[in-house]
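dumping the sequnces here before i forget
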Amino acid sequence: MISAGNDIVALNLVDKQRTVLPAFYSKFITPAELSLHQESTISFENFVWLLWSVKESAYKYFKRGDEYLVFSPSKLIVERLFVSTLTDQDHLRADQPIDAYYEGTVSNGTHTLNFKSAINNRFIATIINEGDVYWGVQTIADSDYHTQSEAVRLLALAKLNDIIIADELWIDKHSSGYPYIVNGSHPLQTPISFAHHGCYVSYAFQLPK
Amino acid sequence: MDRKEILSELKKVLAPYTESKEMLDGINEDTDLIKDLKINSANLVDIIIDAEAQYNIEIDFDAAEKMYNVGNCIDVISDKINKTA
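..and the predicted 3d for all of it:
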């Protein structure tokens, strides 16, 4: 299945004191996943939200193939996590410097997906990294839902128009909630995913092979 | 506590996390927390923690994942209240 999934967490909007309480993180992080933190140098607060963003991204990826899928973060297990770098194969465009990159795998028990995350002191952005994935992050002035929704579409369409020759690209929304790209009146086989939180928006799309 | 009372209290739990105050006033059991109330998914765990405090209950892994719309939230809260009564 070709799909797309991404997420972004605005770190200024999370409750840092609550984040580190077992009553909070144990709702979606398993004891086995906690051991991944002991092997890494990431702060615990960022570790918790990194895992959240990976699970949310994986849910969006799987949702495209199962419209009745319910988000069950405790059943999406992050199995590997390691420090990474940005390579020539990555197509990330961000308007903020990135401090660190992480990669790893996440599984729903049947399928295992690769992910990649970009972190700085403002946000954690994650994509499911299966194939040729383009992703972008942008800071926006207003954090209301309408502005977020419009900004992420404009950002994605700007990139799409750079690399796809098309008459008129626009974004529609499936009844299940996920976005898809349309050229004129024809849906494209290029899955796309949107995320927004506070003053940050992010897209990810995967070009067919 | 009946479903109507739980719904009334649930509005207070959800209020800090939604911009859609008008929608919140008119919520019913079919209201979706993310699609209708525009609650960011990053706040779903906050809502579960706040609900635990509001109703003096504990919501576990399996129950938490059902809380994607108001009706499901009420089901889970009602079930937990009855078990602790």
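Chain A has a mean pLDDT of 94.
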